[in-house]
Every structure is written in structure tokens, then in C-alpha cells.
Specification:
With 170 residues, this protein is α+β, with helices and mostly antiparallel strands. It has one domain: 3-Layer(bab) Sandwich (minor pseudopilin epsh fold), CATH 3.55.40. The protein is 29% helix and 23% strand. Strands 4, 5, 7, 8 and 9 form a five-stranded antiparallel beta sheet that branches. The chain is elongated and about 85 Å long. The termini are far apart. The relative contact order is 0.14.
Length: 170
């Protein structure tokens, strides 16, 4: 027959932990420590997320511009390609001018990233489209595209496209 034996507390714990539970003050202290750690860690994680969103959006835009230029140079579908920039998205389109179509490739920016309405797209000749020339990859719409965080305009990236279609980032 098996007897239920309770394990006895070790001698060094008999007057503290084993004889009583956790007091209300100990629980309050633990909750306070967790609250302080959360207050310290949360803003840092939020800032890291925002910086990553900005970096990823810049990389997506560069990739879309590279795709447009590459498709134009290779004469894919015997046409030119361009990219249109709006405050919350960039759209790759075929042809010399933008036409809304379901076949256009669109990247939506993370909700914390935007192209400012004023001063965000600074292209030669004005406008919000960069269209590449067939065979050479040159563009008349060279210039810069500024992307920034919605809540912190000091965190920003500038994407540059020069006259011969070469794309760079600061």
C-alpha cells in the first residue's frame, strides 16, 4: 500500500516560505517592478519598430524602381515602365503615363511611414512619376523621394534617382 507522504520543507525554509504564502506587499512589489520594466522597454521597442518600418519601406521603393528600370531596359512587353509616388504607396505601371489598372504593382507603406504631401517628391519637371526610357534606362523625372515617419519627421530617408536612372539612398 502506497502512503501519501507530504514532503517536508527543508530546515532552512521552515520559518519563512513553507509556513506562509506570499504577502500582499510582495505581490505589489513584483507588479511594480514589472510595470517599471515595461515602461522602460516599450518605447525602445516602438522606436525600433518604426526605424525598421522606415528602412523596409525605403528598400521596397528601391526594389520597385529597380524593377521598373530593369523591365524598361529589357523591353518587357515592348513598353516602358514607371513608378508613381503617393503619400502612402508607390505604384509600378506600364507605359509613358500612369493609368489605374489592376495589373499595376502596388506597395502600401507601413502605417507609420509616409511621403510628405509637400516636399516629399522632388522630381525634375515636377510631377509624381518616374518613367524610364527604353534601352538606356535614363529618366527625365530624376530627383529625390523623401520618406519619413508619420510621428517623427526627423527620422527620414532620401531616395535619389539620377538622370541616367541610377538609384541611391542616404
Amino acid at each position: 500500500m502506497i502512503k501519501n507522504k507530504k514532503k517536508a520543507c527543508p530546515q532552512y525554509l521552515q520559518h519563512s516560505f513553507c509556513r506562509r504564502g506570499i504577502s500582499l506587499i510582495e505581490i505589489i512589489i513584483i507588479i511594480s517592478i514589472i510595470g517599471i520594466l515595461s515602461a522602460i522597454i516599450t518605447p525602445n521597442l516602438s522606436r525600433f519598430h518604426n526605424q525598421q518600418a522606415l528602412k523596409n519601406t525605403a528598400e521596397d521603393i528601391i526594389s520597385l524602381l529597380d524593377e521598373a528600370r530593369g523591365s524598361t531596359i529589357s523591353s518587357k512587353n515592348l513598353t516602358t515602365y514607371g513608378v508613381r509616388f503617393l503619400s502612402d504607396k508607390a505604384i509600378l505601371f506600364p507605359g509613358l503615363s500612369y493609368t489605374e489598372s489592376v495589373s499595376n504593382k502596388q506597395i502600401d507603406f507601413d502605417s507609420v511611414v509616409q511621403i510628405p504631401e509637400t516636399g516629399g517628391v522632388n522630381l525634375n519637371g515636377g510631377g509624381i512619376d518616374i518613367v524610364f526610357d527604353r534601352l538606356t534606362g535614363d529618366t527625365l523625372g530624376y530627383g529625390t523621394i523623401l520618406i519619413q515617419l508619420v510621428n517623427d519627421a526627423t527620422l527620414q530617408k532620401v531616395i535619389s534617382v539620377n538622370k541616367i536612372g541610377v538609384i541611391s539612398i542616404n
